[in-house]
Amino acid sequence: MLIVLVGLPGSGKSTVGRQLARRLGLPFRDSDHDIEARIGCSIREFFEREGEAAFRDIEQEVIRELTQVGPCVLATGGGAVLRPANREQLRRTGCVVYLRSAPEELFRRLRHDSQRPLLQVADPLQRLRALYEERDPLYRETCHYVIETGRPSVSTLVNMVMMQLELAGVLQPRP
Ligand SMILES: Nc1ncnc2c1ncn2[C@@H]1O[C@H](COP(=O)(O)OP(=O)(O)OP(=O)(O)O)[C@@H](O)[C@H]1O
Ligand SMILES: O=C(O)C1=C[C@@H](O)[C@@H](O)[C@H](O)C1
Ligand SMILES: [Mg+2]
């Protein structure tokens, strides 16, 4: 079983994904992590040196590979849904959960973060709002389920995802 998490930067894909994998006894994979292993530097450095298009090419390859490695929880990069090929591949091969967060909430979480290249701008909140406008429809098109992340803690969100997967018959109900 492949469970895929999509959502904006800071929506909790890595944090929720890691805990979800532990609870389900599945390996946890993070496409950003595999990309960094492949390019041999941070995504931020690669963006600055090679540009976004080169990054998206590598991201597409890594996503194709990660959807074929067998059962796991896969956290995708925030921009993975930009390419139609990725949207199709993720939706076809996995059970896709969209962790939806309002841009204002993401701004609160990420305002001290210096690693997310798309947010290294004068007005990160405005940037997050623009990213939300552009991507919310793409996350919805890709996903099977939407989970609102505004208030719940990470462990509550893990329970919410598990409950949703049980209701859908993707997971066996817990005794
Ligand atoms: N539900 C939540 N409540 C409060 N803080 C959260 C929640 N989910 C994530 N966080 C915090 O927000 C920050 C970003 O989370 P995380 O790195 O998991 O996001 P991400 O979706 O993987 O981002 P990216 O797309 O950039 O990889 C972390 O510091 C994390 O601890
Ligand atoms: O939102 C995005 O476009 C990105 C999010 C990160 O997860 C990384 O994949 C990269 O920084 C690009
Ligand atoms: Mg992440």
UniProtKB/TrEMBL annotation:
Keyword field: Amino-acid biosynthesis, Aromatic amino acid biosynthesis, ATP-binding, Cytoplasm, Kinase, Magnesium, Metal-binding, Nucleotide-binding, Transferase
Under the heading HAMAP family, the entry gives: Shikimate_kinase
Specify the enzyme's EC class, one word: transferase
- Name where it mostly resides: cytoplasm
Species assigned in the record: Ramlibacter lithotrophicus
Location(s), subcellular: Cytoplasm
Q: What does this protein do?
A: Catalyzes the specific phosphorylation of the 3-hydroxyl group of shikimic acid using ATP as a cosubstrate.
Q: In this record, what's one Pfam family?
A: SKI
State where Mg(2+) binds: S14
EC assignment? 2.7.1.71
Q: Which gene encodes it?
A: aroK
The UniProt family comment states: Belongs to the shikimate kinase family.
What does the Swiss-Prot or TrEMBL cofactor note state? Binds 1 Mg(2+) ion per subunit.
Name recorded for this polypeptide: Shikimate kinase
* Needed co-factor(s): Mg(2+)
Question: Can you tell me which residues bind ATP?
Answer: G10, S11, G12, K13, S14, T15, R116
Q: What's its catalytic activity?
A: shikimate + ATP = 3-phosphoshikimate + ADP + H(+)
Highest taxon listed in the record's lineage: Bacteria
A GO cellular component annotated for this chain's UniProt record is:
cytosol
State one molecular function term (GO): shikimate kinase activity
Q: Look up the record and give one Gene Ontology term from the biological process aspect.
A: chorismate biosynthetic process
**Oligomer status and interactors:** Monomer.
Pathway involvement? Metabolic intermediate biosynthesis; chorismate biosynthesis; chorismate from D-erythrose 4-phosphate and phosphoenolpyruvate: step 5/7
Q: Which InterPro entries match?
A: P-loop_NTPase, Shikimate/glucono_kinase, Shikimate_kinase/TSH1, Shikimate_kinase_CS
Binding, substrate: D32, R56, G78, R135
